[in-house]
Inverse folding.
């Protein structure tokens, strides 16, 4: 009985501590986002006296000639395009890497590892994209995101390909299905679970990326949501309500993914970490 | 044998590597290799003059730049150390028979998915000297808070703690996966011997979750060495240059138009990351085999 009460006490303490430490910042975000400007200055947990939710929302959306909307479009285009390419390229490469051991596979392994460890050389990347005519363009940004996330995606795909029996390949080969056809017709559909994981994890990472757009996509017309948010920080340094409304709007997409695919995301991130 | 090799060649053509290889080689590897040349030049993107090791000398000689090395190492050691300790504790806690376990796991993990810029801005607000919630809470218990981000003594440490807040969720789920994969027979054996909870932790959970520890250390150490976003949104390396890391110096030099110097910073970061990550990986990997 006493044991039970002590347990309950411990659980209560843990719950309160975790809530305070991890949820209070989010509560502050939400609460400040719906206050008016005068009350938002206090940055406290006072209940809003007025609820200018729509006004704050419109003010943030209309700011700087609808830069947030453009940023949302850009970020979406970058995320969708780079994740699509990433999934196809990484799955193909991981398949041949796992199935055909040898000198080439060892070299590929080494490159995957170096891609995980080496920090990208940013200014030379700018120089290269400039030479290709891709600097400050969405295609350039997309290719860069693909290159920087390939290693992680290949790790996940390779581990999953290893679990697909080779007999399946052989059966398909007897039917004359080899190479690209074997991959796209037989293997790729079987990779569905890990494909979903890769899509989720890399979408979140690419959508939240700040450093690479900062270097590779300067200027307002190509702004991504993270860079826009960063710029809003100095623009709204007295209007905390609008700043936090912006933060809330930008946090919604990953929040939605988290609500629907919590388990998948956690599994993907841990698998990537442990196999890395 | 040759027949099998031939079949393998036709079934798994190297052409499958092609798209990934082209993107990776062109966009990632070429700049990485070229960095070693550009780091030795005075460079404006359009033309470059060879200046030998001048950029590296500047990096190591100037106080404002040198401080970045120390800060980068302090930041990486501090964040990865705390993520290991707190991640392990939370991992043990969240694998025990706790009500609301699922809820708590979500709560701890969610910050991992929020953008670093958003986290940085929110915590800058929480840490404001007068109105910030942190200092108001400290005032309640009679502690006089300070200007955490504006004070050279606490700026880097404050950012590192926020980094831990954001990243400990990933460490925790890695530990949860590690702890859950420990066979229950081990715990049953301890229970038969009448071992305490501490005994159970010390002799089973701790040693057998070693692979998780290894992942958390490697992952957060490399991440810590490269970290930029959080520092840039919270302090921009300030006050002065006191919370600059190598990555923030790289950006500052790039903004100032010193592309060669910036790239030299990149090469130094590359050397430090490999000099630490490769032996660390080797050493920790060996311990894993020895287990």
């Amino acid at each position: 009985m006493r044991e039970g009460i002590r347990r309950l006490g411990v659980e209560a303490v843990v719950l309160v501590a975790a809530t305070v430490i991890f949820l209070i910042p989010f509560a502050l975000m939400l609460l400040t986002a719906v206050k008016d400007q005068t009350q938002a200055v206090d940055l406290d947990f006072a209940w809003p006296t007025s609820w200018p939710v729509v006004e704050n929302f419109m003010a943030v959306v209309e700011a700087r000639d609808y830069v947030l909307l453009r940023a949302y479009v850009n970020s979406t285009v970058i995320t969708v395009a780079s994740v699509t390419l990433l999934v196809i390229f990484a799955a193909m490469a991981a398949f041949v890497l796992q199935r055909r051991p040898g000198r080439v596979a060892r070299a590929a392994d080494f490159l995957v590892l170096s891609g995980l460890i080496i920090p990208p050389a940013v200014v030379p990347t700018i120089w290269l994209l400039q030479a290709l005519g891709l600097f400050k363009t969405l295609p350039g940004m997309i290719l860069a995101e693909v290159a920087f996330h390939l290693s992680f995606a290949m790790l996940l795909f390779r581990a999953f390909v290893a679990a697909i029996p080779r007999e399946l390949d052989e059966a398909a080969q007897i039917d004359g299905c080899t190479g690209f056809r074997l991959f796209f017709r037989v293997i790729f559909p079987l990779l569905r679970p890990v494909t979903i994981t890769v899509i989720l994890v890399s979408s979140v990472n690419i959508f939240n990326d700040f450093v690479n757009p900062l270097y590779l996509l300067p200027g307002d017309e190509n702004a991504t949501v993270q860079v826009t948010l960063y710029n809003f920080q100095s623009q709204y340094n007295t209007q905390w309500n609008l700043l936090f409304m912006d933060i809330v709007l930008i946090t919604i997409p990953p929040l939605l993914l988290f609500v629907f695919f919590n388990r998948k995301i956690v599994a993907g991130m841990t698998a990537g970490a442990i196999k890395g | 044998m040759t027949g099998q090799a031939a079949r393998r060649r036709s079934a798994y053509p190297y052409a499958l590597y092609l798209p990934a290889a082209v993107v990776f080689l062109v966009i990632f590897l070429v700049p990485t290799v070229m960095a070693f040349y550009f780091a030795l030049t005075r460079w404006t993107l359009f033309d470059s003059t060879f200046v030998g090791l001048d950029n590296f000398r500047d990096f190591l000689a100037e106080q404002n730049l040198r401080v970045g090395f120390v800060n980068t190492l302090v930041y990486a050691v501090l964040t990865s150390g705390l993520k290991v300790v707190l991640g392990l504790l939370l991992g043990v806690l969240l694998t025990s028979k706790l009500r609301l376990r699922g809820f708590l796991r979500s709560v701890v993990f969610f910050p991992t998915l929020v953008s670093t810029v958003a986290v940085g801005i929110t915590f800058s607000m929480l840490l404001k000297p007068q109105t910030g919630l942190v200092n108001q809470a400290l005032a309640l218990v009679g502690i006089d808070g300070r200007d955490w981000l504006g004070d050279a003594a606490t700026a880097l440490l404050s950012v590192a703690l926020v980094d831990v807040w954001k990243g400990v969720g990933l460490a925790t789920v890695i530990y949860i996966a590690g702890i859950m994969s420990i066979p229950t027979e081990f715990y049953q054996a301890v229970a038969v011997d009448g071992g305490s909870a501490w005994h159970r932790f010390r002799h089973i959970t701790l040693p057998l979750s070693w692979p998780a520890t290894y992942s958390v250390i490697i992952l957060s150490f490399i991440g810590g060495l490269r970290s930029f976003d959080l520092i840039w949104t919270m302090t921009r390396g300030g006050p002065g240059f006191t919370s600059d890391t190598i990555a923030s110096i790289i950006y500052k030099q790039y903004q100032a138009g010193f592309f060669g110097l910036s790239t030299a910073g990149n090469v130094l970061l590359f050397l430090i990351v490999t000099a630490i990550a490769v032996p660390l990986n080797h050493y920790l990997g060996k311990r894993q085999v020895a287990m």
